[in-house]
Specification:
alpha+beta, two-stranded antiparallel ribbon, 9 strands
Length: about 350
């Protein structure tokens, strides 16, 4: 192994990990650095620099974890299954379980994808044409994802049968209550409303990403197209409207908030579709009817994100957050999300 420099990586023994990786990945030789990406709050992610090129390592976080959270094994499986499909994903290289891992926790390695990650959905530094192309590309990728033939890629058993929203409301209620460290009345009311308003199961099932948003995509700058969809930790089999509504929250969140949504942005002048134009385009690409229970789908999306961020903030309190400062900021957004959902279901917001 070449001389190893030690940038801040949150790894106790980076040299030992580098030696392990070189012994198991023939194309990853001469590792000189393992650097932690600043972004990301769930599974810590690292850039591996080697003479052979760049790779990315994604691991479970240290410390005690909720049983069904941080399953990097599922991320690896779904992205490996999608190799060659219409949905762009990085190439999977190596999966290491908790027992064998030199980190003491599971991780996987994938190839590095060259491109740009955007965090502001208003895309202020791009042209009107580029913005329109990016939103068109995202919509196409989402439609392609939900059109994947599960049996053909070996993911028919990737989720449980039955009403997806019924299951997910129960799951995230349990996760939220296990993570909560303060009382948020709006979240409690939202949980009650969701439980009483779950729409009947319409039989629609697809592979869902679970965290489909702008900054979980790497973009080909020249073509203004999605080069890779990443961060599949929450993927499962479920209702496609969950992904669509989750992404469409960005139209309702303030552009000045920690989430950098599209609220208050003149979308027309920027070349960005309205929420319902985006929904209509997605449905046209999939040749399906527009959703009838859109208010429920959106309210569920707000609740689920709030539950996730409560867990992120709790990890900061417990001392094992990937980025403690950002985790605390995200925690402050949970009441904001709950109150916005409360306005939605009360009829004050459409």
């Amino acid at each position: 192994m070449t001389e190893f420099r030690r940038p801040p990586s949150h790894l106790a023994e980076p040299e030992q990990l580098a030696t392990y990786l070189e012994s198991r990945i023939p194309d990853c030789q001469g590792i000189s650095a393992i650097e932690k990406f600043a972004a990301g709050q769930s599974n810590p992610t690292y850039l591996i620099r080697s003479h052979s090129g760049l790779f990315v390592l994604r691991a479970k976080p240290p410390g005690p974890l909720l049983k069904s959270a941080h399953l990097v094994e599922r991320e690896f499986r779904v992205m490996k299954a999608l190799q060659g499909a219409a949905v762009p994903v990085p190439k999977m290289v190596l999966l290491v379980d908790d027992v064998e891992s030199p980190l003491g926790r599971a991780f996987f390695v994938m190839e590095y994808v060259e491109g740009e990650v955007y965090h502001d959905p208003a895309l202020p530094d791009l042209s009107r044409r580029a913005r329109s192309a990016i939103y068109q590309s995202m919509c196409q990728v989402l439609a392609d994802l939900h059109s994947v033939e599960l049996e053909e890629i070996g993911l028919k058993d990737f989720g449980k049968p039955g009403n997806y929203f019924d299951r997910q409301t129960a799951r995230w209620t349990k996760q939220y209550r296990a993570s909560k460290f303060r009382d948020i009345d709006a979240m409690d009311r939202l949980i009650d409303w969701l439980g009483a308003n779950v729409p009947p199961d319409d039989g629609m099932t697809s592979l869902v990403h679970g965290d489909f948003r702008l900054d979980n995509m790497i973009f080909d700058v020249e073509n203004c197209a999605v080069a890779a969809l990443i961060d599949w930790e929450l993927s499962t089999l479920g209702h496609p409207m969950a992904d669509l509504a989750y992404q469409c929250m960005q139209w309702r969140l303030s552009n000045l908030s920690g989430f950098r949504g599209l609220g208050g942005v003149d979308r027309s002048s920027l070349g960005i579709p309205t929420e319902m134009e985006y929904v209509a385009k997605y449905c046209a690409l999939r040749k399906i009817d527009e959703p009838r229970s859109w208010k429920f789908f959106l309210a569920f999306a707000f609740f689920r994100l709030g539950a996730i961020l409560e867990g992120v903030a709790r990890r900061a309190i417990d001392g094992n957050a990937s980025n403690p400062g950002t985790a605390r900021i995200y925690g402050e957004m949970v009441p904001v999300l709950a109150n916005q959902a409360a306005e939605l279901i009360s009829g004050d917001s459409t």
